[in-house]
Amino acid sequence: MTTTFAEGFLWGGATAANQIEGSYLTDGKLPSIQDVMPQGIKAPPTDEPTPDNLKLDGIDFYHRYESDLDLFAEMGFSVFRFSIAWSRIFPNGDEETPNEAGLAFYDRLIDATLARGMQPLVTLSHYETPLHLAKTYDGWVDRRMIGFYERYARTCFERFGDRVRYWLTFNEINSVLHEPLLSGGIWTPKDQLSKRDLYQAIHHELVASASATRIAHEIDPGLKVGCMIIAMPTYPLTPDPADVWEAKCIERENYAFADVHCRGVYPGYLQRTLRDLGVELDITEEDRETLKHTVDFVSFSYYMSICASADPDRQIKGEGNLMGGIANPTLKSSEWGWQIDPAGLRTVLNDYWDRWNKPLFIVENGLGAKDQLVEVDGELTVVDDYRIDYLQAHLRAARDAVEDGVELWGYTWWGPIDVVSASTAQMSKRYGFIYVDRNDDGSGTLERHRKKSFAAYRDIIASNGASLG
């Protein structure tokens, strides 16, 4: 029997402002941390923006969003996930009043998205803390960041909440454990960052996220606010009970963030971790009350799974994965060393549903690859059967999870159009169904070309998943 996804399932794609918009100083915007990371997470940041940073121009979505949205609508999107650049709204991050030109840009983008039949799914903070906040306050290490973020979130909810019904507070919030600058705007180099400051920063982000959820629900109880984490199922490398426990401990590092978002309290295992580290956090009674404002749904990115072992002699790390982990010897890897594991997505969906019993949303899933532009029937395209295979396999796994009883609201592929990579700051690591003519050296026309996968995704959406077989 051919099965489909639920009626009203939200199909679309996901992007981030810092990877697509460009125009990093246009209309009053000031730099974010991304503008001083020309090699992504592969090298320390520069003191100021440098011309070799591809994200300064991105793919010029700031000026081309109308035509790009037309392409998304052609694929049949019913949802488009994008982020608001905090430093477009509050250029330094700590101002009292917002930048009207920045607000006006997102008014236009939201209206254009809705006009094409797509619901906006908006991320408030997607790896782009205003640079001033990072340098002046050391990012989320400073408790004052909570107030700055609350002002920013309230501004967005009040300005856009009549049209944007789905919100995410922080992108992949659990990544701060491994990339404190990228995820937490923490300017202190990570090899000098104390555990106490790291976990205090995490606490401040969690409080800010819960506060934003409270503010949204006060403004309009109909707004849906979700958390967003990296999902990475961790398998024991062997049946050795020590490996099984090691895998559980690693998974709990990721569970902890959504546990707090969904349950409103710190789980016992996280409290033990803090005790074992000798970390005593500054947690006020007001913080504890704020954390009780839990999210409406859980969203996540899913790209790979990893293995874990307690044996120090078996710690052979996978390549290209900012969260670490041992490469699974039973799986194939992408060109960037990420293990391809469609079955892991079904596992994640079932685990998350069983654990939190909240609606789920896959807001990132995709394959980065080195695409080759070729001419077919007089048109430039990419014959990316590898991406189609990846897409179909993961959607079949998601559909199986729905058949298992999981409540899944939607799926947004990362990214529907080629963007500058967050982790490597390359253009050659391409995810899109739409090819963008820009190269790692910054050359290119920025012209857009439909890949073979463009039609494949269009057909899946049109059939609501029935064409997956």
Automatic annotation (TrEMBL):
One of its GO terms (cellular component) is cytosol. SUPFAM superfamilies: (Trans)glycosidases. The active site is at E364. Keywords: Glycosidase, Hydrolase. One of its GO terms (biological process) is carbohydrate catabolic process. One of its GO terms (molecular function) is beta-glucosidase activity. Belongs to the glycosyl hydrolase 1 family. This is 6-phospho-beta-glucosidase. The lineage of its organism: Bacteria, Bacillati, Actinomycetota, Actinomycetes, Propionibacteriales.
